[in-house]
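Researcher: Please predict.
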Amino acid sequence: MKALTWHGTKDVRVDTVDDPEIINPRDAIIKITSTAICGSDLHLYDGVIPGVKPGDVLGHEFMGEVVETGKDSTLEKGQRVVVPFTIACGGCFHCKSQQYSACDNSNPVEKQDMSATLYGQPMSGLFGYSHLTGGYSGGQAEYVRVPFSDVGPIVVPDHLDDDKVLFLSDILPTGWMGAENADIQPDDTVAVWGCGPVGLFAIQSAIVMGAAKVIAIDHYPHRLELARKLGAEIINFRESDVREALMEMSGGIGVDAVIDAVGMESHGFAVDNMIDVVKQKVGIGADRASALKQAILAVRFGGKVSIPGVYGGMVDKWPLGAMMEKGLQIRGGQTHVQKYTKDLLAKIEDGTLDTTFLISHRLPLEEAPTGYKNFKEEQDTWTKVVLKPGMEKAA
C-alpha cells in the first residue's frame, strides 16, 4: 500500500510499504478515507521529537471503513469509524479512570525505556508518533492496523460526512480538554495563545462553555480572523504588547485563565525565544516555551493555566517563582480522546460545534509532502490539510 513515511528533518515521502495485518484478537484493519496533517506532525517534520526512525509511517488523525477484524474486536466490517490518536487498553487503572492517554498497556515493554527515563514513567501508545510512544504506524496511509479496536474507535453515522467528524480523532477533543482544564466559569476572561487548529477549537469550546470573553493571540491575519468569526477578541503579537493589552482588556488584574495551544515551537522575537531557537537547532534544548512563559506572567493571581500544546523535553528560565507566588493552577497532558468522543459527536450532530470551517486544503495522499511543506511555511492560509487516499490529482 501507499503511505507517508518520515526520512529526516523536512523529508517525508509517499512510499510503498507492507499492508497491515491483524496481529492480536482485538485488532481491526481500517481503510482510510480521510486523514489530516496535525500541527504536532510538524514537530516530527522539524526533527524536534526524538525516537523517530526513517521509514516510520506518520499520521494520528484519521478515519475510515472497517475492512477486517480480529475475533475479539467489537467492530463490524463496513462500519465508518473515527480512531482516537491515543491507543488505550480500556482495562488498566488509568483507562478505568478515563485517563486514556496514560494507558499502562498500549506502549510495548521494549519501547518504554526512553520515555520512562525522560518522564519517570513510560508514555502510552500513540499512532504515528515516534518510538517513545510505541512506534505504531500511523494513518497517513491507505490502511492502518488499530490495536484495542474494542476501546478506541467511535462508529459515526452515514449522514455525517468525513469533514464533520474527522477531527474527533484529536484536535477537537484536544481543544475541548484544553478549555475544560482551564476550569472556565461564567464570568471568566480567557486568553488563548495560538490560533492553529487546536487553539481555534479551544476558543470555540471556551465560548460554548460560557466564558464571558475569549481573547485570541497570534500573528497570522487569516487565523486571527477565523478566531474573530468564532466570537473571540484578538491580539496580533506583532502589533501589540500582549501583556499590556491583556491587562487593559481584563480590567487591570490579568485574565482569569490562559490556554497555551502553541507548544514547543513558539514563534516571535522575544529574547528568551531567540535563545531557545538556537538551542533547539544545536540540540541542547528541546522546547521553545516562550508562549507558555508569557501566559504564566499574564494570568491573574490565583488564575488557571491549561497546556494542550505539545512539549517533549526541558525548558530553560522557567518562571517557577511566578507560578508559586501567584498561586496558579496548572493542568496539561495528552488528550484522553476516548472520554470525549461520544459527547462531542452529539454536539456536532445538534450543531453546537462546527469543525468544517477549519479545512483549507484537501489533497490526494500522493501530495502529502506538498501538504506538509505548505502547512509549515504558509500557515496563514494553509490552516488545515486533509489527505484523501484515492482522490484524483488536480489537473
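Model: The chain has a mean pLDDT of 93.
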